[in-house]
Sequence to fold (277 residues):
Amino acid sequence: MNNIKIIVAYHKESSVYQSNVYIPIHVGAKISNIKLPFIRDDSGVNISERNESYCELTAIYWSWKNLDTDFIGFMHYRRFLFFNSSFLFNLKRYFYNFGRLIHSRLIINKILNMPELFQFKTSDFAIITEELRKSEKIIPLLLQEYDAILPKKEYLGKKVITQYAQCHDEVDLKIFYETAGELYPELGEYIYDSVLQRYLYPANMFVMRRVLFQEYCEFLFNILFEVEKKININEKIGYQRRVIGFLAERFMFPFIEYKKHTSKIKVKEVDIILFQS
Fold:
């Protein structure tokens, strides 16, 4: 049970927590102008050169192809899974989600003064360090009971496809889901259902049993490599060039629902802690 590795993606210098469990990795290393003192995602079998559109997925792909461990996780240099949220935070989060459901998000946010309440925030990295140390004892215990640990669902206040269309190019999401259904018909009903939901698992973060992780990556990257052939990333500008990462974020929910129904996996949802440097 001690064989747990959680890869943490960095693309620039920042505060770092590193241990036998938490392993920092330099993402997009092949196309980066800086050198970070970590494992690089352009070592071994990799897709580092695709980082501009694949974002953190280059680290996830690297983990899939190069790590040999019983449990694999992924987090960001500013976002970590959080196992110690307070009663007050959870109470505020409940009202935040309720506000989104009844389309009163702005009013609720003003009252709570916490505009993105799917994540706990701190500017003190010492707090992050202490929480990550605690998590190294908590995670093995959770993995005795659960197959995956994921962030709590983020409530969007609108359907997934509506939210995506407002923020990105709706055509890309349709291509993604159509391709997924063509390659894996068994996912079809779960994909269709996910489009109509008003929440998703944010940030491509997780800790999973290796077998589950391998299946997730097999599905995800086979789909993404086909999608990449069908959309013109070069035509996209700035933030929208991260399209592959955005699409992947919409895949975790249907995949997990599929595995719940077909393999009876058990999932634990926890909060996110955000480091505001």
